Automatic annotation (TrEMBL):
Reaction equations catalysed: alpha,alpha-trehalose 6-phosphate + H2O = alpha,alpha-trehalose + phosphate
Cytoplasm listed as a keyword: no
Gene Ontology BP term (one): trehalose biosynthetic process
Keywords tagged on the record: Hydrolase
SUPFAM superfamilies the record matches: HAD-like (SSF56784)
Organism: Musa balbisiana
Protein name: Trehalose 6-phosphate phosphatase
Length: 389
């Protein structure tokens, strides 16, 4: 993979994700042709260059992507009213309990976690959707409860805290509404941290100093800013090519675009995927990642939530320090990059929020957002006791 320097961060210059076998569809699905045609005039599209190989790739890429779409979010539990009083242990519960042996609950392992945090400073990284707010059908209604907001507020008063989301930074701030912490939107491609009073680090060298909406001084880092016009172009194209698909929804996340299919009839998922694949063939500098019933289109740069964690630790003057323990709580595939960074560097723990067994680089798990809140409260309680001791 060719790494080119763009400013001071590396940019992946090959269209790697389109070679990914996960970008595949069964050969019996007819390609939707008008979409790509409609946007071939886009300023950032490279349609003519890649046209020759399209038909072949559609077959080669079969299946993987659809499997990823199907497994991208656990089905909600069906309650059978007739058997509601039956003991709730079924096969799924058994599997979950077996999985817990490998990824123990961060609540039941709390003592173990804090014993490794003794004499260390904890840095806290929190994903938003599915971690601080439950997954809901309408992304605009993923509201954080006041109780969760208060738990995050107290935690951020005890520990350096960052919210790391795939959403745009502005949008996630509107949900969280807390000042004094770092916000990282667009999967780490838009990072803003308050300038701290006695900031000896001066922020990260690649940050610019600016002011936020409240006029407060902040450090800002946007490694994908050159992609903004391209992202805006593909956003409009995606809105257009999905407008006749019932339930499909396209969300702009500033440096990324989400195509939601949670409310699309499952039989139509291949069609959603096919249209996105077709369009992306003309944008080799963009790639797709899979979230929870969402396809996330983002720039092909060597940047993700894991890199964002490293960057934030550096910005906060907390990297390469033996006395820092990082804790990252997240529920999504995109959080795996951050779990991996912490696991491989031995700098802390990933905690996966999941009520079903999943392969993960996390060390611990929490079942749902209510357990996340309990965990945050426990951390605060422990910190206050420890400080008072
Ligand atoms: O990194 P995150 O903060 O977890 O953001 C990832 C995506 O989250 C949102 O979508 C997810 O949550 C929605 C609301 O609960 C749900 O309707 C959707 O199905 C989930 O995928 C957000 O809307 C996306 O733009 C983010 O990419």
């Amino acid at each position: 993979m060719d790494l080119k320097k763009n400013g001071s961060f590396p940019v992946l210059t090959d269209p790697a994700p389109l070679n990914n076998s996960r970008l595949g569809l069964p050969s019996n699905i007819k390609p939707y042709s008008s979409a790509a045609q409609a946007y071939s005039s886009g300023l950032y599209s490279t349609k003519p260059r890649r046209k020759a190989i399209l038909g072949k790739l559609d077959d080669v890429r079969a299946n993987g992507w659809l499997d990823a779409m199907k497994s991208s979010s656990p089905p909600r539990k069906q309650l059978n009213k007739d058997f509601i009083s039956e003991p709730a242990i079924d096969e799924n519960d058994m599997a979950y309990h077996t999985w817990l042996m490998s990824y123990p609950s961060a609540l039941t392992s709390f003592e173990q976690i804090i014993s490794s945090a003794k004499c260390k400073k904890i840095a806290l990284f929190l994903d938003y959707d599915g971690t601080l707010s439950p997954i809901v059908d309408n992304p605009d209604l993923a509201i954080m409860s006041n109780a969760m907001r208060s738990a995050v507020k107290h935690a951020s008063e005890c520990f350096p805290t960052a919210i790391i989301s795939g959403r745009s930074r502005e949008k996630v701030y509107k949900f969280v509404k807390l000042t004094g912490l770092c916000y990282s939107g667009s999967h780490g491609m838009d990072i803003m941290c308050p300038v701290r009073k006695f900031d000896s680090t001066g922020g990260h060298p690649n940050c610019i100093m600016t002011t936020d909406e409240q006029g407060k001084e902040v450090h800002l880092f946007q490694p994908a800013s050159e992609f903004l016009p391209m992202i805006n172009e593909i956003f409009s194209s995606l809105v257009d090519i999905t407008k006749d698909i019932v339930g499909a929804r396209v969300e702009s996340n500033k440096f990324c675009v989400s195509v939601h299919y949670r409310l699309v009839n499952q039989e139509v998922w291949p069609e959603v995927a096919q249209r996105v694949v077709n369009l992306l063939k003309d944008y080799p500098r963009l790639r797709v990642t899979h979230g929870r019933k969402v396809l996330e289109i983002r720039p092909v740069i060597d940047w993700n939530k894991g890199k964002a964690v490293e960057f934030l630790l550096e910005s906060l003057g907390l990297s390469n320090r033996e006395d820092v323990l990082s804790i990252y709580v997240g529920d999504d595939r995109t959080d795996e990059d951050a779990f991996k960074v912490l696991r491989e560097s031995n700098r802390g723990y990933g905690i996966l929020v999941s009520s079903v067994p999943k392969e993960t680089n996390a060390v611990y798990s929490l079942r749902d957002t209510s357990e996340v809140m309990k965990f945050l409260k426990s951390l605060v309680r422990w910190k206050k006791l420890d400080d008072g001791a």
